[in-house]
Every structure is written in C-alpha cells, then in structure tokens.
Amino acid sequence: MPIISVIIPVHNGEKTIIETIASVQQQTFLDIEIIVINDGSTDNTLELVKKIQDDRLKIFSYENGGLPVARNRGITHAVGQFIAFIDADDLWTPDKLERQFAALQEYPEAGLAYSWTYYKFPNEADSYADESNSFAGDVYAELLVKNFLQNGSNPLIRRAAIDSVGLFDPTLKSCEDWDFYLRLAAKWNFALVKKAQIIYRQSPTAMTSKLDVMEKYSSIVIERAFNAAPPELQHLKKQSLAWVYKFTAQQSLKYNSDKLADIKLAAKRLKMAITLYPKNLLEDYTHGLIRKLIKSWLVLQFHMVYIPEKSHNI
Fold first, then answer.
1. Start and end of every Glycosyltransferase 2-like prokaryotic type domain (predicted)?
2. Which element (helix H / strand E) includes 313?
3. Do residues 106 and 117 touch, judged by C-beta distance below 8 A?
4. pLDDT over threshold 70, residue 180
5. Do the bridges between strand 32-39 and strand 4-10 make them parallel or antiparallel, or are there none, so unpaired?
6. Neighbours of 227 (CB within 10 A)
7. What proportion of the chain, given as a percentage, has pLDDT over 70?
8. What is the pTM of this model?
C-alpha cells in the first residue's frame, strides 16, 4: 500500500487542476496515491482529470458538499499512513513530500509537518516567500494566536493523528483548516521544514478574499478554541482576534483599495486590531498596513478630485 495519500478536492477547477496534479506527480517521494475528489464540478474538470494516465490516480465524484466535506471524503478513501492535502489551484515544489516525510521520521512524536509558503500573484513582481514563522514542537499557544500554516495545502499529517482528533468540521465555510490544525496541536507536536514548498496562488476570487465570511467563521473557530484552551492561555484571545482583523485589513487593501467604502472598512479593521492588541503598533507589518492605507486613501482622493477636461468637437 502507498505510504502517503494525497487528497485533492476540486470544484470547477478546469483552469488549474492539471498543473496541480502534475506538481504532485513530480514529487521525488514516489510511494503515493493521488485521490481526486470531484466536488460537484460543472465545468470540464472531470473530463480533464480522466485523461491523465497514472496508476496512482484515483477519482471519486460527488455532489457538491464544500471543501471540508470533500477533504473528509478523501480521508475515507485514503489508505496511506500519512495524508497530505492540496487545493486544486495550488502547487508544490518537487521535494515537498520527501522533506516533510523525513521531518516526521526524524521526530516521531510529531503528528504534523509543515513548510513555508510562497505567495504567487498574477504579477510575479508581487510574489514572495513568507519565512517569518519558525514554530516547532509544542506550537499550541502560537497556533491559538494565528494560523501560521497559512493554507490548507501545507501539511503532511500522520493518519494516527487524524484518527485521534476526527475530521474537518463540515459546518465551517472558512477557517476549517485552522480549526483542524488547532485540534491537532492540542495533542501532537509539529515539525517544520524550513523551505518554501507550498506555492499558494493569490487572486481576488480566492477564499481569503471573501472577508466577511472569513471574519464570521474565524470568530467561531477562536471562540471554540479558547473554550477548550487551558486557563493559562486565555490571555491570548484578544491577540488572536486582533490577528484576524489585521489579516482582513490587509486582504481588503490588497484587493479592494480602489473603493472608498472598502478603504474605510480596512481602516476600521486595523483600528480594531490595534485596540484589541496595542502591541501591533510595534510591528513592521502593521506599519506597512498603515502606509498602504494612507497611500490608497490619497490615491483615491486624487482620482475623485482630478477630473480631466473633456475635449469637445466644435
């Protein structure tokens, strides 16, 4: 039986699914199965995937159930001792599974291995690798503050760890990966591969750009997590909420900075983040958001005031 099961949930992913599967096929760790969960696609996704010639590939089709449900369905089909997930618009570097598997072999007490993330934008000049987090071992406190794994395409997880905490919560329409990681971190250590191995595509239609949905479900995840957290970690709750507002302010400025209402909403979110956790004012990250906020406002004001003269035919 394969050692690693790779689960790829996909809903209407015809534009990216072939490239995503290719990045899994090109892994230097070969003892894998590739499980595609076709989550009610109505485009050409299924037809494209069926054309792929690879004995390791298994395809299962269902009515649309949403991302956490699709991942759970993949888990039920998986036979590997280790499980990895990759969303249908993301990519991996070829050594991703090999390096993460080695990390879990080196640290048998770890239930999950993760890597750094490369944020890929349509304009390559905007792309960057985020190497700011180096948490390993008992990461529960750090994960309560923020989802430093950053996406659902990141970790390699022991099947035993998944069995110990259960599946993804199907009622969550966002942040279901953070909720899942928190339950794992409460029981298992994490291992870190210090290399950007997840290529995380960024676009205005991505889940992280749906800010109202993210704020709603992140609040649910935070409330649930701190209800389960020990008393000595309760002081982190305001910092956790502040991280959500800071992140949604960043996303709003990234994708919606040409509208006055969105700029005002980003300013409100950033103010809430600072009010909840004033130490945010000491971070370069926050300084950058403030500069971006001011710049966006000034640019918008310029466009509102400056009305070019129209030429008229006489």
1. 5-243
2. none
3. no
4. yes
5. parallel
6. 8
7. 93
8. 0.91
Q: What is the mean pLDDT of residues 41-66?
A: 98
Q: Which two tokens stand for residue 125?
A: 């000049």
pLDDT in tens, 232-274: 999 999 999 999 999 999 888 876 656 787 888 899 999 999 9
State pLDDT tens for residues 128-160: 999 999 999 999 999 999 999 999 999 999 999
pLDDT at 312 over 60: no
d(CA 265, CA 275): 15
Instruction: Give Dmax over CA atoms of the chain in angstroms.
Output: 82
Give bridge partners of residue 120 from the DSSP assignment.
Answer: 201
pLDDT of the residue at 211 = 84
**What is the total residue count of the chain?**
314
Q: CB under 8 Å to 137, separation ≥6 — which residues?
A: 189, 190
Amino acid letter at 193? V
Among candidate residues 91, 132, 95, 136, the one with its CA nearest the CA of residue 113: 136
Phi, psi of 39 (to 5 degrees): -90, 65
Which residue has 């029981």 as its token pair? 187
CA distance linking residue 297 with residue 291, whole number of Å? 10
Question: What tokens were used for 18?
Answer: 């072939």
Per the CB < 8 A criterion, the answer to whether 114 and 139 are in contact is: no
11 contacts: CB under 8 Å, gap ≥ 6: 38, 39, 40, 41, 45, 64, 67, 70, 88
What is the chain's Cα-based Rg?
Answer: 21
Query: How many whole angstroms separate alpha carbon 34 and alpha carbon 27?
Result: 11
Contact 221/183 with Cβ under 8 angstroms?
Answer: no
What's the CA gap between 69 and 17, in Å, rounded? 19
